[in-house]
Amino acid sequence: MEKLKVNIHVDTDVSIKEEMKRAYENCPQAIKYCNDLKIPQEKIEENIVKIYDFVSDINYCNKCPGIKKCNKTNPLLCTKIIYSYGEIDRQLVPCKELLKDIAYKRQFVIRDFDESWLDSSLRSVDKNKGRDIALLKYRQFIKEGDNHWIYLNGGKNTGRSYLAAAITCDAARRNKGPIVFLNSTLRLRELNDMGYGKNKKDFDKRLEYYSNVPILVFDDFGNEFKNDFVRDAILFPILSTRANKRLFTIFTSDFEIEEIETLYSNTKAGAIRAKQIARLIKSMAEEEINLGDLSIY
Q1: Count of CA atoms in the C-beta half-sphere (13 A) of 106
Q2: Helix 236-245 vs helix 200-212: crossing angle, to nearest 10
Q3: Which of 11, 45, 193, 220 is the most buried (most CB within 10 A)?
Q4: What is the assigned CATH class of domain 107-290?
């Protein structure tokens, strides 16, 4: 006996489709988008499940919890409706907040600080006289293009590095980069090794980049490895070029500028170059900003 063939097609429940349709009708953004694509109403009703995915994404993203808390089925992706040759289809594209975050992070060519600090802002900086002066100088740079340097010193854990990071993060959000935030101990030693190595071209390229990048930070300045080559062939060329071009530069340090001069004055000839370096920093920064000795971080 031949088996009876039965074709069963289970359609989406009518009431659910009606809810989806109402959700679409209550979403002006989705309606405008579909109208701009000139999608006929009957096509929308035929493809209401696809349209509903689009509507759901719009409603969720309008109350965006932030990229770290995105809890959608496809986190950090948005449903986009495509209408071509009379057919509706869906496409997943990166959400605008993700693209904004990628563009923001790309402002940092080198970022020698903890990733958690990328969320820092000027509002998160504790207030005191020194920090207020630093933020005023930064705002003058933003508003008036005043490229005077900022030299931050003080005791350990007084927030020097965090303040510099908060400033550069704000600059990155304003697309003022590229930005290079250097750990002086690591990067100057790195340059020193490159200079003595076989690949002179890489050394020259890196030196030129540090000399000309729009925003440069020397974090923990003064604790770096020191020799004649670092002083004369690395540090002085970078600072003199940046001073001549008036490029925004920030230093954080345990030391006062005069102490930096002493640290680099290991010979009579070296003392002359060290004095030039100190004068450059003093003339461009105009003042040292002391954050005190009280540990707050």
Answers
A1: 7
A2: 40
A3: 220
A4: alpha beta
Q: Match 């970022």 to its residue by tokens.
A: 111
pTM of the predicted structure, to 2 decimals: 0.83
Locus of tokens 């992706």: 77
The residue to which tokens 């719009």 are assigned: 58
Across-strand partners of 289?
A: 152
Three-state DSSP state, 117: helix
Q: How far apart are CA 293 and CA 297, in angstroms?
A: 11
Every domain of the chain and the residues it spans: 14-98, 107-290
| Spatial separation of the C-alpha atoms in residues 241 and 238, rounded to whole Å | 5
Name, in order, each residue with C-beta under 8 angstroms of 277's C-beta and a sequence gap of 6 or more.
Answer: 231, 235, 236, 239, 260, 261, 264
pLDDT digit string (tens) for 100-141? 999 999 999 999 999 999 999 999 888 888 999 999 999 999
What are 92's strand-pairing partners?
79
* Residue 24 CA from chain centroid, whole number: 37
Of the candidates 114, 103, 281, the residue with the CA atom closest to the CA atom of residue 178: 103
